Amino acid sequence: MNRMNRLYEAIDVSVFERMSQAAARHDAVNLGQGFPDFGWPDAILEEAAREVTGGSNQYPPSRGIPALRQTVADHYRRHYGHDLTPDHVVVTSGATEALAVIAQALVSPGDEVIIFTPAFDAYEPMVRRAGGTPVEVKLDAPDFRIDRARLEQAVGPRCRAIILNNPHNPTGRLFDREELMAVAEVAEAHDLIVVSDEVWEHILFGEEDFIPFASLPDMAARTIKCGSAGKIFSLTGWKVGWLVADPDLASIAARAHQFTTFATPPNLQAAVAKGLGQDDWIAPMQDGFRSSRDRMLRGLEQAGYRAISPAGTYFMTVDLAASGIAADDETFARRAVEEAGVAVIPMSPFYIDDPDRHMIRLCFAKRDATLDAGLAALERAARFF
């Protein structure tokens, strides 16, 4: 019990949840937690409603309903040319559960897992809960490029895997082929599994190309991909995700999944299968989020902030120091929500041991009125410093 207490004392409440609670408490505009207020295809909601009343509401197969597993395989064959079958796919209760079961399946006590930081804040506690040790490889602002020499130096004798997030949360970067090949070559040289969190794969704005990690030479057999219907369809509360891997790896993860959530609501799975089988919603969705991104960038520039334009995701990074603001990220975030009426996310919690404290993350996946209210509040916040 003491060991468990120590473990969970080390895992704080998510910074996203804390800032959303603060936004509600102070009646502030929430540009913190990454959920959109537009962007989903209405047909998917209608299909889910039909499935609730007319479809199955009992236990589905643990690995996912056959229709969704087949549709996921078909989707990636259509978009990326991947040769997949349903045996490559395990449906999970969101990509976060996929990441959790991968950690449980891959990591033994004492194993090390490389995490590029800044990183999605679930990676570190998932590795620790599995008994592993996260090893931080820092991406330096403002470019956030993968440094091969730094990655090589981080690989020790107990290293088991690399977690790669592309497109990248929190920065919105798309890693280029040179960077991905560096990860691939290190993984090959040291016999590492690459857990490729690609949940933002369709939230792209057209300036750069997304390269699925499994499409790189010899990487399909050592890659476990995580995908998310919640991100693809802007329905983050649905928590329908999947992992895609070599069938042997997928089966190992499926056994961990069986004793985690066992299965995911069958009606939502069926609705996702229908939506994922079509592509006509992708371009309008991307156009909408690109417009919101550009509106946020223009507003921030007018307010005197220095922002880093993202190539994908719902997020962009603001460099407080480059904007002439001397406060650290936590101080800025606290005063912004309490005094200016806008919730933002400090970047320092996205690191492990060596945080940068001069940046914040904003979610721009909001309607124009929400963005404009948030920008007005950020303009007020800038006057405090």
TrEMBL record:
Coiled coil: none annotated. Pfam families: Aminotran_1_2 (PF00155). InterPro entries: Aminotransferase_I/II_large, Kynurenine-oxoglutarate_AT, PyrdxlP-dep_Trfase, PyrdxlP-dep_Trfase_major, PyrdxlP-dep_Trfase_small. The keyword Transferase applies. This is Aspartate/methionine/tyrosine aminotransferase. Residues 27-377 form the Aminotransferase class I/classII large domain. One of its GO terms (molecular function) is kynurenine-oxoglutarate transaminase activity. Belongs to the class-I pyridoxal-phosphate-dependent aminotransferase family. Keywords: Aminotransferase, Pyridoxal phosphate, Transferase. Its cofactor is pyridoxal 5'-phosphate. GO terms for cellular component: cytoplasm.
